[in-house]
Amino acid sequence: MSETRVDTYRINRLATDQDDFDARLETLLAWEGVSSREVQQRVDAIIEAVKTRGDAALIETTNRFDRLSASSMAELTLSAERLAQAFEGLSVEQRDALAHAAERIRAYHERQKPESWHYTEADGTVLGQQVTPLDRAGIYVPGGKAAYPSSVLMNAIPAHVAGVREIVMVVPTPDGVLNELVLAAAHLAGVDRVFTLGGAQAVAALAYGTETVPRVDKIVGPGNIYVATAKRAVFGQVGIDMIAGPSEILVVSDGATDPEWLAMDLFSQAEHDEDAQAVLVSWDAAHLAAVEAAIERLLPTLERTDIVRESLSRRGALIRCRNRDEAVALINRIAPEHLELSVADPEAWLPEVRHAGAIFMGRYTAEALGDYCAGPNHVLPTSGTARFSSPLGVYDFQKRSSLIHCSAEGASTLGRTASVLARGESLTAHARSAEFRIKKT
């Protein structure tokens, strides 16, 4: 793959008129999220230990991996009072920012709430759908260096809006370090119980339950490869939100947005980790060059320069396309987690954009606003899964039951149809069950 090299960084340069563009793009986008056999074996062993030994296994693995010396689950449990204390201990500025974000996230997700419905047919038969919340949801929140209070809000508030009866949060605390913002966010978002657990052991505890940790119906939230592997392993025992890959952003610019704005938008995703992906697409070659110059100029000013540099080198790219139509085709091919339409008339693009986790429209809408406080959820499908997946929302914490209430006349009418179809499948008990309810003439 061709590259531009500068003293401080390098970034891949692609163009749709290159003969090998498709192959280069596929290489750039390739991401293998499947665990190695070694990781899988470790996770399987941890899950089995938690299933069979419960709290004892939790304490043992947590002490080992997080370098603690807990002797009981009480030491790995945080009270509601401790969460409230964390919130009250924040600065006024931090409390106000968390509260403002929580208010906006809640208002947005309130609009997602589906309603139960039914209708009555002419013969009196009633058909419909009943929407009910999950009883208990488990939220995994990264800990240690990767502490994200915004993830607490984005995962817990939709569950709360959905009507989930109990929200259980797990958060690792390596070396016993608690993040006050994370705890404050849990208080604000209405989390009911918090355990300072992480890794595959926390996922196993939520999936199967222990003497102290209650079994949940669904596990949501991001984590490392061990967490992702464990979520995949327990799926079916419980529901999960998704197996998330590295964060990613695709910016499409018509050439009129400030290059420094776009450079920083790319950085905002690249700084997550070395595997994150930041891609800019434009049909304006001079504009791409200006953004590249801004990247070179601003990169040394970042606090996470080394991570951004590595991310841009591994998976970042500036792509020159021929025109707007090719840009749209690239959007739908990549199916990005975050899509910025930094163009004059973004609304005109929407009918053609089929695959994207979240769409940020116009020059002023930085993706970072969506991460924290715009309102829509920042838990989004990655690695091209926006082709068939959606953002986390209220609907992820609810389930739907079909309603069927036949009148005598309806049962007779439907029974005749069911009888024919059941006998065609050689399921005669099905047929006879329906036939018993057919009116005798």
What does this structure look like?
The protein is α/β, with parallel strands linked by helices and 441 residues long. It has 3 domains: 171 residues, Nitrogenase molybdenum iron protein domain (Rossmann fold, 3-Layer(aba) Sandwich), CATH 3.40.50; 204 residues, Nitrogenase molybdenum iron protein domain (Rossmann fold, 3-Layer(aba) Sandwich); 30 residues, no CATH class. The protein is 43% helix and 17% strand. The chain is built from 16 helices and 16 strands. A 7-stranded mixed sheet has the order 1-2-13-12-11-14-15, sandwiched between helices.
Sequence stretches where pLDDT stays below 50 over 5 or more residues: 1-7
- Distance, first to last CA: 78 Å
Judged by helices, strands and strand pairing, the structural class is alpha/beta
Q: Radius of gyration, rounded? A: 26 Å
Largest sheet data:
7 strands, mixed
Helix segment tally? 16
